[in-house]
Amino acid sequence: MGERDTPPRWAERLLWLLLPRRRRDELTGDLREGFARRARRDPRRARRWYRGQVIRSIPAAIALRVRAERDTRDGMGHGMDMLKQDLRFAWRSLRKSPGFAAVATVTLALAIGVNTSIFSIISAIVFADLPMQEHQTAVMIRGVNPELGVEQGSVSPADFLDLRERTRSFSSLSALTEGRWVLTGQDRPERVTGIRMTPGTTETWRLPPALGRAFTSEEATPGSGRVAMLTHGFWQSRFDGDPDVLGRSLTLDGVEHTVVGVMSPTFEFASFRQAQVLVPLSFDRAGSSRSERNLFVSGRLAPGVTQEMATEEVARIGRNLAEEHPETNAGWTLRSASVMDSLMNSSGRRMMLLLQLTVGMVILIACANVANMLLARATNRSREMAVRTALGAGRGHLVRQLLTESVLISLGAAILGVAVAFGLNDALVWISAGAEEAFRMAEIDGKVLAFTLLVSLGAPLVFGLVPALRASAAGPAATLRNGRTDEGGRSGSRARGVLVTAQVSLALTLMIVAGLLARSVVKMNLSSLGYSVDGLLTVRVDLPENRYRDEGDVVRFFEEAREALSSLPAFEGVTLVSSLPGIDPGLQRPVEIEGIDVVEGRSAPSASILAVGPDLFRTLDLPLVGGRGLSENDDEASIPVAVVGRALAERFWGSEDAVGRRLRTVGSEEWIQVVGVVADVGRGREMDDRGSAPNIYVPFRQDGRRGMYLVGRVEGEAAAATGPVRDALWSVDGDLPVGPVRTMARAEYERSAPNYAIISLFGIFALFALGMAAVGIYGVMAYSVSRRKTEIGVRMALGAETSRVRTMILGQGARLLAVGLVLGLVLSFLVSGLLRGLVFGISATDPMTFVGIPVLLASVALVANLIPAIRATRMDPARTLREG
User: Fold this and answer.
1) What is the largest CA-CA distance in the chain?
2) What is the DSSP secondary-structure string of 72-91?
């Protein structure tokens, strides 16, 4: 077609711009028809006619445009009426299909609830009110040892003093460590927890007390007056927020402390939330340890100093300290980072990212499932849409009303989802035994509810837009004539197939992630602890320093306490141990092995040093594999001795006999002689690369500690012994608080409880994904069979075998499943990189998981596919052909 056979472009474009949008197609179409009729006779006269028509139409076009804009402004006043009308229509439509509405709402509610719960956990960390004001110029300084896998460690007192003297990057440096005291003067002695902190900490944190004052530098010197501060929560709960609390006395470990202030409530963040009392922390340069790393160090950048400059200087000081003190600091350095960067280590950040990815997959799976239901429903409503279109309803109006239905479903799901989130948060705290701080901090607050609302308003665009567009696109004439649309044809089948494939691939990824984490926990917990926890009861006792000043007093008390418990009828035997073997890692100390030099630049090997009673191995049924155990004669008058775990003995002495060899803790002048080797205990993160925790057991009488567990085997119900245990200990010292009496099994569970909570969470994800994938496959194949009833009836009427018909239907579902599995495996391999360092005992690409989970998903999906196939072959061909 030549240029003369078309209307003048400039005239056509001019009219298009002047006319209101709703009249453009109508009026320009009429002009084009008139031009076409004239152009067949004389194209030149037709073009001249067209230009004249456009020029004469300019005033009318402008008038139409002005009237349309005025009508639009007037119509905005009716917007609420239109919204109410759409909502009423959507509500009536959903009431006519209660089954669809209920399934879609519950599906989305589960997904939205999981998303809300996880976002509340992430929000508690990322958007939390930090305890430090003006945190942009605040830093945290941590001890780092890549060789030992420590990236968020503490700092030793001696290193802190050196750092404070050498640094120029900070206007102030502060340190704090945890503390525990016995509070007396109440009805019963009570164990309180808190913080020992250097004066100036509140200035470093820019966190003035809510009441009273902070500590002064003079109050941190030895022999000065004893003062204390209260945390805001303890002040409220114990003293009812009484402002006259200032000047009162608290008896901590038998020493009176004067209350001088109350901390700001902002201080109660993360692990500080459990603190009750604060006292000054003082250092004696001569007595400051360099190997015991127990300080949480923070600082405030000096004016003009950037985070990068501080990081470089702190790292340099750390390297210098490692060169100057290789016996304690080899392999260790210091790292300065902003407060936000210090909240989580790399494993924590990977876990948070993994959670965000997986909950995103959960909501996408749910949306895909609901979208498939909407596509099927759109087909059943094709005649309704056609009638409304024939009566003048525009496509935009239909799309808007269909989306309104989707929004109603989503908002209803959001309300249920918030309830699901509350329940899930409570369940995570319960499963984790309150040991995971992130779960306790999670709250369904305004930010979380805003996120839920955003998800519930955005989800309909994901699952409802495409079905709405397809439902409103069909031509009314063909639909009213034939009673159906092309929704059952190739285009509709392709859309549903894509959605099911996406569901399968995302479900497989979620299931593989959950499977890897579950196998890791199973590996951790099925590995032998080394002894049976059945029938073991434990209780922790911590002695106040002021009343039990020397080691003899400490030993005497625990010997009397052990005898008191042993005299109880329920106990078969009682022993002492400073930390529960294989459950509590205890005191980790670097050790030096006689005759074995540490490689230059590397840190000394570490081991758990456990102070134990002489009958520990007998009580725990731990077998000796060499030498002898510890005896009553191993006391302060005899040479220092120890029993070591088999893994440690094999690591340092190989096949040679470890008995008679010597070792010592780094910094100590006294050698300890190995007198025996015992079977290994321990599992999980405390294990070394050989699979066992390196433990060294020393006699309690040679290494008396103020905090000890009394462990005994009981006959009958352990819970019944709780009261007698407390009474027996109070008979020795009635002013001592007694820790919780619990079974060893409970202690073991609490140690792994956060892992169980995480596994439960991912298990929920996996089950949800598996169910949605099975439902998706079933729904698509059932719908396909319903659309192909006539074809199947013809095949069977012509003699097609039942097995061939079933194979045909199964093959269609199997193709979708196969594509989804392949895509899911690829996605799983990509996501598995986040699991490195989070799994134990298996690789992040564990073959058993990457084979077993796809087989499980394929089996469930094929069963879901088989049900429509069986139903299809049970249809009566004659009846099907009559109805078709």
Assistant:
1) 127
2) HHHHHTTHHHHHHHHHHHHH
